[in-house]
Structure formats: C-alpha cells, structure tokens
Write a structure and sequence with these properties.
alpha/beta, two-stranded parallel ribbon, 8 helices, extended
Length: about 325
Amino acid sequence: MTMAIGRTGLLAGLAAAALLGACNRGGDTPKGQVVATVNGDDITIHELNSELAQARPPADVPRKTVEQVVLGRVVERKMLADVARDRKLDKNPDFILAERRLEDGLLVQALQADIAKKVPATTREAAEKYMEAHPDQFAQRKIYTIDQIQFLRPPQLPTLGLQKANTLAEVAQILTASKIEFRRNTATVDALTVNPGLISEIGKLQAKNAQELFMFADQPQGAPVPVMYVNHVTDTKVQPFTGEEAINAAQQLVHRDEVQKALVNSLTAFRAAAKDKIKYAAGYAPPPTPAAGATPAATAGAATVPAKTSAPAAQ
C-alpha cells in the first residue's frame, strides 16, 4: 500500500513536524542511525527509509522536505500510539483481535513473498515456447470488443430462463421482468491481459457461432456474491505482438503462472501437514469441496466459459 503526498499534505506535514519538534526540545539530540525519538523510543534511518518507500511525493519536491514530512507523520503516529497505550486501549478485546488479524495477514504476505522469490526466472526458450503455444496472445493477438451485461448472481439464476435468450436485449428483458438490477456496457478484452482459458473458449464459440451469447462468473474483491457476465462479441481485431517486448511479456506471464503454481502447491502441502492439528466444533467445519468437473448450477443458462477467469474490465 502506498500513500500519496500532495502539496497541501506537505505543508500540513511540515507544520505538524515543526510543532512536534518544538514539543521534543530539551532532550538529547538523536545521533548515528537514530533520526528521532518519541518517549525514548528510537526511530532509525532504516524505519524512515521503509516509510519513504511507501510515499509518492510530487517529483519536484526536494527529498529532504519529503523526509521531514514523512518523519513527522511517523513521530505523530508513535506519539498517538503511546497515548492509546496509556489509556489501556491496547488491552481492548476488539483491538487485540484486529491486531492478531493484521499480524496474521502480514505474515501470510511475507510467506507468499518468500515462496515467490524462490521461483526461478523464466528463460527465453520457455517464453518462446509459451508464445508458440498461445498464438492468440502473440503472433495472432486477438482484441475483442464485447457488448456486455453484468449483474450480481441471484439465487434463482438456474430458473431465470437465460438459456432461451438469443440477444442481450432478451437477456435484459428477462432480468427486468425478474426485478434484477443489471448494468450494460462495452468491454474490451485483450488476449494478452486475460486468462488464456477465457480466450480459448471465446475462440471456440466464435468459430461455432459468432452470434452466440456466452456467460461466465467472477467474484471481484469486495463483491458480496459472484458477478455474472453475459457477453456478445461485436468486433474482433488481430494485432500481432512480437519481438523482444513480446518475449519479455511472455517471460513475465510464465513466471507469474509458475509463482501461482508454487503458491497453490505450497498451500496444498501446508494443509496436508496441518490436517491433524486443526479441529472444528460441531457445525463449524467448512463445506465439502465439490467433485472435480462438477458444474455449479449458478452457471446454467447461456453458453459458459470457465468461471475462474478474470472478468474483462469495461472501458
């Protein structure tokens, strides 16, 4: 997570830093690796540099000014944290739970980063093989223009009758009659930036019937339920992507896939190792995993492509 520092923020930060500096006078001046102290707690240059790495100041602002503003914020944060501790707020049950959740999340991120950095860099040869296996992303890179309807998956999706719809207008009529809110817009799907499985399925559908609607599901972060996408391809362009830039992109794609595989494999191994150490109270165990190949009823309707593909962002 990064934090932006605008000019107004810089001015306010400098004023706060000056005020805090005035309140801190009279003690020993920090030396060496220590750039400030708050109630005897040292703030080191390493901690300041870590904070600076998260800042995004205007390019024309001198580094020293940015350092002063960011350090002032760190000092203020530590000062307020001390006040909270003095009030025993760190003993509050809600705080303890939030602290534990945050710590667990940071540890998981650190574990993921540790696993990812051990995945070898992708070779040029592996990238070229990937490009040959995925011509729709490179030599014959496809860019689809799609007319699209989006809506949150309702419980009655299998019985809506979407499989009878031949056009998006008919889909809209069915959703309107069922009082289901939806949004219709135009999306651009670049084969280079979405899941290859989605592009493969779109290609198969287009070869069979260019007018056929297709539907898939995705659950963006923050969405309460999966989002359904009903689509109609209105235009297809071929823009070849070749050369060194394409090879570099293929290396990144292959490496990303290898990192994902390493994370999934590690999670599977961790689950197996912890299986006998995890106990659930009656009624709290997670639901059984669906059998491989099972098709969720929620995808019934228009022709479907794999639900676990990235949804194209409307542009």
